[in-house]
Amino acid sequence: MNSLLSASLVLFCCLGSASSFGLNTQTADQNRRQAIASIAASITTPILPHSLANAVQDIPTNQAATSAGRRQCTTDTNPTRTIVECTGELRKFNADGRLSSVSATENGVSTSAVKNPSRFSPPWTYLTETSDAKVAWKSLVDAVRSVDDRVEIVELTDEYLHATIPTEFPQGVSYDDLEFLIRPEDNIVLYRSVSRTSVFVYPLTQPISDKNSNLNRLEKIRDKLGWDILGMRQT
User: Fold this and answer.
1) For residue 17, is pLDDT > 70?
2) pLDDT of 57
3) What is the mean pLDDT of residues 24-53?
4) Which of 148, 180, 225, 234 is deepest in the core (most CB within 10 A)?
5) CA distances from 61 to 36, 92, 173, 190, 200 (A)
6) Whole-angstrom distance, CA of residue 73 vs CA of residue 96
7) CA distance 162 to 144
8) In the prediction, which pLDDT does 81 show?
9) Which residues contact 210 (CB under 8 A, 6 or more apart)?
10) 175-183 and 73-77 beta bridge pairing
11) Are 91 and 101 in contact (CB under 8 A)?
12) C-alpha torsion angle, residues 101, 150, 137, 182 (rounded to 10)
């Protein structure tokens, strides 16, 4: 920028003495105005080095502030908002077979989010209904199916359930993923309910709230079952 400004000043000075090179005053003034306009445009236009521009574009999505702690994300952004959708946090992507936690950049709750109290919710026990894990599991599957007409069971085994349902808040953006994992040896059920998509409005770094829709849906399921929660209910 300094070299551009210096060259511009030299050009301006030369134009100022254009009459000494045989140019009439009118022609010199016209040339001077054109040069000033060109200089002003050059100085006021932001200059971003090519390498820096590429670096900005090449930042991995999972390292961006709006997707920190998440996996397999895509980002759609404009000057006023950013939409991040992530699909890599389901149990099938976890080598240890556990349910994933919930980061601060997404909406939802999980029994695995012990390091993030605002996203943690305690496990459920089914002993208020039965001590038979198979009976409890069938009850849970029925309760999930009946909680909303839009629920779709994606994967179902003897111990794991994955279902999806359209996100309630913000409306129309994507789906919520519901996961349940039964542990018969402890008479408990672990769970995770998270919105795939987070919407950020500039300059906020926290997503627009789901208005506790993930938590409320889980509580609706638990109320249907009549099961107890092993700890303080998240609010």
Assistant:
1) no
2) 33
3) 47
4) 180
5) 42, 21, 19, 29, 14
6) 21
7) 10
8) 92
9) 107, 108, 167, 168, 169, 170, 195
10) unpaired
11) no
12) -10
Q: What is the DSSP letter of 5?
A: H
Identify whether the C-beta of residue 83 lies closer than 8 Å to the C-beta of residue 198: yes
* Alpha carbon distance 53, 40 (integer Å): 23
CB 104 within 8 A of CB 69: yes
Residue type, 213: S
- Cα distances from 226 to residues 130, 215, 216, in angstroms, run 11, 16, 15
Decide if 8 contacts 42 (C-beta within 8 A).
yes
What rounded mean pLDDT belongs to the chain? 81
Phi-psi region of 45 (alpha: psi -120 to 50; beta: other; left: phi over 0): beta
Which has the higher per-residue pLDDT, 131 or 66?
Answer: 131
pLDDT (0 to 100) of residue 172:
85
Is a pLDDT exceeding 70 seen at residue 36? no
User: Residue 153 carries which side chain, given as an amino acid letter?
Assistant: I
51-64 burial code (b ≥16 CB/10 A, e <16): eeeeeeeeeebbeb
The angle formed by the CA atoms of residues 82, 88 and 89, to the nearest 5 degrees, is: 100
Report pLDDT for 54: 34
Question: Structure tokens of 161?
Answer: 């359930």
Q: Measured in Å, how far apart are the chain's first and last C-alpha atoms?
A: 54
pLDDT top residue among 45 and 213: 213
Say if residue 211's pLDDT is above 80: yes
Amino acid at 6: S
